[in-house]
Amino acid sequence: xxxxxLQNIINGLGExxxxxEEGSEYLMITVSKEQLHAxxxxxxxxxxxxxxxxFCITGMDWGEELGVIYHLESTEFKHAIVVKVKTEDRENxxxxxxCDIWRTAEFHEMExxxxxxxxxxxxxxxxxxxxxxxxxxxxxRKDYVDEANMIxx
Length: 153
Description:
Mean pLDDT: 93
CATH superfamily: NADH:ubiquinone oxidoreductase Nqo5 subunit
Number of helices: 3
Structural class: alpha/beta
Distance between the termini: 57 Å
Shape: elongated
InterPro entries: NADH_quin_OxRdtase_su_C/D-like (IPR037232), NADH_UbQ_OxRdtase_30kDa_su (IPR001268)
Protein name: NADH-quinone oxidoreductase subunit C
CATH topology: Beta Polymerase, domain 2
CATH class: Alpha Beta
Helix content: 10-25%
Order of helices and strands: HEEHEEEEHE
Organism: Lutimonas vermicola
Number of domains: 1
Pfam family, one: Complex1_30kDa
Family: Belongs to the complex I 30 kDa subunit family.
Largest sheet: 5 strands, mixed
Number of strands: 7
Radius of gyration: 17 Å
């Protein structure tokens, strides 16, 4: 299915969805954090879309906002999209978990929590995955300072 056809179907799944194809082969959809879970659920279950595979889930720090980028594919129809969600709350960033929709998201969300500090509502086992439990801070945030390894001149 072409991106224009995908956009026409997806546009009816939520309110105020933003679409772009700039610099990508994929149709990119930006969804509000309040709609994330509902839209993702519809992306998977809609019989014309069937995005049944979350092949890449990445945390992002855009400076003012933190967020997540989801690369989704339909293994049946062979089409793919990118879904972006952002939060401006850097002190207590929270998004809804999608691991009940795509099981692979469970570990991706733990990794994002570990490195960016984004908490995922309704995640079954949210904890640090790579860093020690006593680690302070989130090393992939742009404002992270690694004081233990600073070079002093």
